[in-house]
Specification:
Order of helices and strands: HHHHHHHHHHH
CATH architecture: Orthogonal Bundle
Number of helices: 11
Number of strands: 0
Strand content: under 5%
CATH class: Mainly Alpha
Distance between the termini: 25 Å
CATH topology: TorD-like
Length: about 210
């Protein structure tokens, strides 16, 4: 295969992965009508990236269409916002820190990653820095830095953040969603995120093997 063509295809795959992270991040915003468009984009981007995701993404689009938006909003608040005990706290510190509290040591770890890549959490982030949405958006940012600005260190940071932070808690988070909701939409969202991140984990493992 022509090396330029191969390089172009690899770049396209990275762009797909970046966009998928951003779209998953948007799926963890408070549900509004615009989420229908987000889910359709997620479906098409996942389909373009790898057909193992097609069925799960299509189910999520269809589920949103037939589920009351108000019921989704109520369940979203119960799982992720409060004011009562959360069904599935969307913060890494709850799962990684011994105290199980928001804004713990793992939050500071996330902040250090952001700062080291030139981001300013105090002015650019309007959620707790270890919120699932913020961490998924950070993965999006790092992959785009690799493609658009050709920063190899962004890819190194991506793999480091994935291995040393995100993968250490995200599957506990998605399990908490599935264990604490009867709303099929959120179960299917958690299942699809699991599937994508398992694929990302395989890429991480293969990258380590290739570099050893």
């Amino acid at each position: 295969m022509n090396s330029k063509l191969q390089s172009h295809q690899v770049s396209n795959k990275i762009v797909d992965r970046a966009n998928i992270y951003k779209l998953f991040a948007d799926c963890f915003k408070y549900p509004q009508d615009v989420m229908q468009e987000t889910l359709q984009l997620l479906h098409s981007t996942l389909n373009n990236y790898d057909d193992i995701f097609v069925n799960g993404a299509k189910k999520l689009v269809d589920r949103f269409k037939v589920t009351s938006l108000q019921k989704l909003q109520i369940e979203y608040s119960r799982l992720f916002v409060g004011p009562f005990q959360l069904g599935a706290p969307p913060y890494s510190s709850v799962y990684l820190d011994k105290q199980g509290l928001v804004m713990g040591e793992s939050t500071q770890q996330a902040i250090e990653y952001y700062v080291n890549t030139g981001l300013d959490p105090a002015h650019e982030i309007h959620e707790p820095p270890d919120h699932i949405r913020i961490e998924l958006e950070f993965m999006y940012y790092l992959l785009f830095q690799k493609v658009i600005e050709e920063k190899d260190d962004s890819l190194d940071t991506y793999y480091s953040f994935m291995n040393e932070h995100l993968l250490l808690w995200v599957f506990d988070f998605t399990k908490r969603i599935k264990d604490n909701t009867e709303k099929t939409f959120f179960i299917e969202l958690a299942d699809l995120l699991d599937l994508f991140l398992f694929k990302e984990k395989e890429i991480l493992i293969q990258t380590k093997l290739n570099s050893s």
